[in-house]
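Open question from group meeting: does this chain pack into something compact, or does most of it stay loose? Before anyone orders reagents, we agreed to write out a predicted structure and look at it together. Recording both the input and the output here so the notebook holds the full record.
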Amino acid sequence: MNAVTKTLSTAVSTATKLSGPVLYNAKVAGQIAKQVYIREGMAPPTGAQFEAAKEAVTKFAKIAGSANMWKNISKEQYFKAGLVAAEAYTFFLFGEIIGRRNFVGYDVKSADSHNEHH
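Structure tokens returned:
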């Protein structure tokens, strides 16, 4: 049995073993989401709501270039916007930490250790 066939066989075997638990957890998550959806009285947006949102975005885009618009915003609104931006940045940083699996920097091997393998 060559290496490709063996690797493929191992991958299929692992996927088969994981399919049961993954399917079960997906069904559980779906049921929980359905219960939350019903309990919170959620509903998909209507066509009128989509149109209202589209009009609001269009209106904002037209007046966003005006300097007067930015002058009329209170300090409290700027402060709240700053807090939202800080929160978004914090979530970004946590995502980076999770992605790196390290608090600081990436685990990069030096060039010397790389040459030892060749």
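Observations to bring back to the group:
Residues 3-39 form the longest helix (37 residues).
Helices lie at 3-39, 47-63, 67-71, 75-100, 111-116.
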